[in-house]
Fold each of these.
Amino acid sequence: MQNPTAAMLVIGDEILSGRTRDANMHHLAKALTDHGIRLAEVRIVPDEHARIVEAARALSGAYDHVFTSGGIGPTHDDITADAIAEALGVPLGIREDARAILQAHYDRQGQELNAARLRMARIPEGAALIDNPVSAAPGFSAGNVHVMAGVPSIFEAMLAGLLPRLTGGAPVLSQSLRVVRGEGDIASALGDLAAANPEVSIGSYPFFRDGVHGSNIVVRSQDGTAVDRVMGELVRMFPEAG
Amino acid sequence: MQNPTAAMLVIGDEILSGRTRDANMHHLAKALTDHGIRLAEVRIVPDEHARIVEAARALSGAYDHVFTSGGIGPTHDDITADAIAEALGVPLGIREDARAILQAHYDRQGQELNAARLRMARIPEGAALIDNPVSAAPGFSAGNVHVMAGVPSIFEAMLAGLLPRLTGGAPVLSQSLRVVRGEGDIASALGDLAAANPEVSIGSYPFFRDGVHGSNIVVRSQDGTAVDRVMGELVRMFPEAG
């Protein structure tokens, strides 16, 4: 059985400029793998309406799920909700349940739900809210697009609430072997092993550290028995590995 | 004057699975910003021929430069050179100058230039080699696509050799102000400031740390005088910032 597929869309001027380092992608990748959803593409685009619309449409059509991060706050450069609504062809307006969540939050804080903050209650028609236990302003799932905050602590909290609602497949299992030999020494044997075992995927990831060339060989499959068997063959092929 | 634009294409099964965290993107983003090239999109795709071809074609047509990382080693899963050659419609074959570089390297190391390692001398016709001072096997620039290794130390060394060959524009200058107020409190004033100063881009990046909500406000422009002026206005608007 094929696992559901997903893409991530990062709305990220600050990442493209090199000002900040994205943290959400790595978190999402691990969480989806554990949940049995295959992350098959990531795109990072600038905070520009047309670019977000175009990427959201392309990814929403190509994958089972799209996860976005960034651009859902109260400021002028927070334009993700507008772009996702346009990409899906649905209207965007203040949602009363979202407004109530914000009102209660700012009442508790003794702050005003001003016009800027009220922008965060604008939700595409028909969307389901995603709970934000950190700072109240909700994310949303519109169609197959799940819109979440860019601040890592909020992104992670939203994802933790969202993931159990999504159907995953069998998790992809992996094991790895660290071989202190250059890839060129092991490539031929590895290629033969990969060809003989199409039920697993075998990846080789070179490293170069402290003057030492080596390779991490990773065997992946939904079939744990097959992973065990191929790992056994690898250990016999490279008995010096550890 | 518009700066040249660029995209990055990461060939990255191991990043999509969450096994490793990409490091090259952040390095490239900073280096391009310093060089006056605007990184306008990043895509991460799996180690699948058709997906690399499709993404390379789309990005090569849309931007002045495409920088790739990953998939140029000697193993069966190193398929980037094949995919880039197909994307650009040029033949791929063993290049004698690349073979000579590899032969000299492995002679020095007392290792054999075997069939797997010789794969790394396969270069698309007409490409310029990119020097690899770390482990010899060269990258290449084919058309506007610059193909580099995924191992961060090698990626960075290749980029350092490549960038001076590429024409940059005026670097985008930025200054930032850290305001310990929630975005909702400053959004309205910030929106007005952005509308009144179209020659700069003003971004607001919320943070939430140790129970404190705040915003980093970033002003960017190729015009340093305009950045200074708008920063002055920001400091007057938020005198408590630091």
Amino acid sequence: MNGAESLVRTLVAGGVDVCFTNPGTSEMHFVAALDRVEEMRSILVLFEGIATGAADGYFRMTDKPASTLLHLAPGLANAQANIHNAKKASSGMLNIIGEHASWHLKHDAPLTADIEGLARPFSHWIKTSANSKAIAQDAVRAIQESRKSRIASLILPGDTAWEEGTGPAATPDSTPAPRTSGAVEQAARALMSNEKKIMILGGRALRGKALEIAGRIAGKTGAVLATQFFSSRVERGAGRVPTYRIPYFVDPALAALKDFRHFVTVETREPVSFFAYPNKPSLLKPEGAQVHEVCPPGDDSLAALEALAEAVGAKASDAPHQERTSDGLPSGKITPQAIAQILAVLIPENAIIVDESLTTGRESIGVTAGASPHDWLQNMGGSIGFGIPVATGCGVACPDRRVINLEGDGSAMYTIQGLWTQAREQLPVTTMIFANRAYQILRTEFAGVGAGAPGPRAAAMMSLENPTMDFVAMSRSMGVPAVRAETCEDLIRAFKAYIAEPGPNLIEVVL
Amino acid sequence: MNGAESLVRTLVAGGVDVCFTNPGTSEMHFVAALDRVEEMRSILVLFEGIATGAADGYFRMTDKPASTLLHLAPGLANAQANIHNAKKASSGMLNIIGEHASWHLKHDAPLTADIEGLARPFSHWIKTSANSKAIAQDAVRAIQESRKSRIASLILPGDTAWEEGTGPAATPDSTPAPRTSGAVEQAARALMSNEKKIMILGGRALRGKALEIAGRIAGKTGAVLATQFFSSRVERGAGRVPTYRIPYFVDPALAALKDFRHFVTVETREPVSFFAYPNKPSLLKPEGAQVHEVCPPGDDSLAALEALAEAVGAKASDAPHQERTSDGLPSGKITPQAIAQILAVLIPENAIIVDESLTTGRESIGVTAGASPHDWLQNMGGSIGFGIPVATGCGVACPDRRVINLEGDGSAMYTIQGLWTQAREQLPVTTMIFANRAYQILRTEFAGVGAGAPGPRAAAMMSLENPTMDFVAMSRSMGVPAVRAETCEDLIRAFKAYIAEPGPNLIEVVL
């Protein structure tokens, strides 16, 4: 059994049984091993950023790492923007990066480059596997790292892949000891004080039992329960503990937070402005407020929240729960508010919302708080081109749930190739493209950074008109059925029909 | 005048008057400056890999650097694969990478990452501009670097952009002293010997006066005049000095080179296998053969070739010139050979061919050696997704010449968004998509690396069927007119019509 097959069998034995792949010549032995290891599900993508975004979505929905297979340094380069997003979301991932055979590197062939150097800014763990006898053990280490919500980059030289290996190695089960931070007692005192306090949740604290316990703590102590503007995955909707979302822009965020004296953070850090603006602060808490970190990002907060609940004496009955609400279905012209109202009524039970809607969804999505229960995933790294790939990974992870990808038109075009993989794998993804035909967010930010009013040349750099893109034709060209919605009635009809289909589809929502 | 405007005016004054851009919030002051500096042509792209590929094409056709504007680390990440290709082609480029304001970095906002670390593997020169008073001088240095066929990465923090600057700085004209390598005499002796010798040209040695002089040297000495399999830009066709192309695969390359005792290299290095294969050598020259480097890659070889011509006593009349040849137009089924024959007849005078055709064009393009004179550009870095962006840059550089982009279907999908920019700028680009519906090259390489015959699961990773992509619909969806050709007659008709149009268009060539 060669090194490549030893690697694939080690991955599968360690529970890493999905690979999002865009291979090249140097990865052919890995591809050949797929024929012999049926347990590995290998999914072809047309661009490497799809692979890593999909692995991010897969991790968020399963808490299990997927692998990716990338072609040398340029393949990794194409993958990096969505590795960045995954890293900021504490999504573990195991990237396998092909490399020339060790003895070929010194000749500086066209594809030769510094893969380790390239991987460093976005990886927690990097290793070039020295030879075919070492690869199985290196894979064990990579599995362990990626299970711990970390980015593992395992570089696989050609000779390591094709020479005789050891066969698979077993990865020990790792049950990390629950960590309770020293800040629990301090946070409990703050929460029981009479001062205004806010508890901000991130990561796994926004799901399941952890969220429920956080709700009890908030109900008992009168703390506001909040999320950052962006969260990796929130379980929300009717029956769940509701949370307040801290605003995106600096001025409303400062206003919203100005009275709080205590910030209790759970799997997140104190709120920070997304961008810097002239004469505006980076930190959003008021002067003199205290931060109590109960659990850092990437750790599992459940034990800490249980300890905190005990310390403040919170009971099950203290937790508030969201009621099912809806304002009814709108008609006529499509607006951001109308889209949110339609989603509030029509989001199917247990849906997964992947939100890269930026301006269109940004301020109105709160209307969906009382929709049927659903998961809501957002971009934690700010690198555009997140939605289609992450939705792809969610579809692979959860074939029995409907994935709804809210997508800006500008954002969609960074990784539009992902639609093809959705068609090929017949994934249950409905993409809504919000076609405002602009980088609309930049029009807002232009004034926000003090650049004044754009003249015609600056305005042209934020416009997606001339030519207008036809997302219906584009989607169909990659095998994904699509329609255009120009009124609320169109949108409601299309959405109802499409979420009932088994495979992927797309609605171009003209704004 | 703020730092951003000081930067833009310094660029323009230094001859860098094109910017391929995909900006974000942190770059809004640069965008605002475009309104005040009309001499800067700013071209919007939908994905950063288009920007850097376009800058590569622009440099190859003008010998002048273009600038790109990229959004923080993820924007640079998306741009890197085509920076890699440009670096391997010795194409200079000036990348401006936006960064958070200096005081915002410590808060680790979502888009924060190590930009310098990320830039390092593919940049020759990197600088984070410390403040708005320094940016104009930093830009001067970046211009000087990029003029020297180097990748310059200038990182622009928000406060450097928006605070008061110095106004523009002047970049001194740089006329690098012509370098004649010490190997000229040694090469001259080898060329005048009775042993078999080959002179391999790269870079600017494949154009204009340098190519002509190389032809004289070869004619005088009996050396074979050759190119690597991939070259950055070759002036070829009727009336030009013809060159022999060293084969891609190791076995035919070894066979072709086995009798040569002397390898004279000019702006390139000795031939190396593109990939490593089990039990095959990396170096393609026979044992005991000598290499004489007359000029390293990236340097200008003209002076060295002039010295060499004098040393061997070559005269103008010694140079061979290619005759106009053609086999006539084929009919019926479209094959790689038929495509090459059609191109041989129909390539318009002075066309620019951007070749990312891989399997379809790889072995048959030699048929076009006797076509009308044209420039032929290839991928020097091996990172796929090169063709559409580079053709875009050529169209910007040479609005009065026809650009013909020979593109594989798999390759096209990495950077398909470039078609939109071609439509927006109405660039004179005809794209031919060779739709064999496979990563055909991998089918060949699979056996080549000793992986045997692919089973169904491996084969699926190399197939682009299921679903079949409709490149006609995809192209039209981005504003580029398109037709499908299923026979030679279709292709001839479409090609004749399209190369006579002023704007972009696309032919899906079904194989």
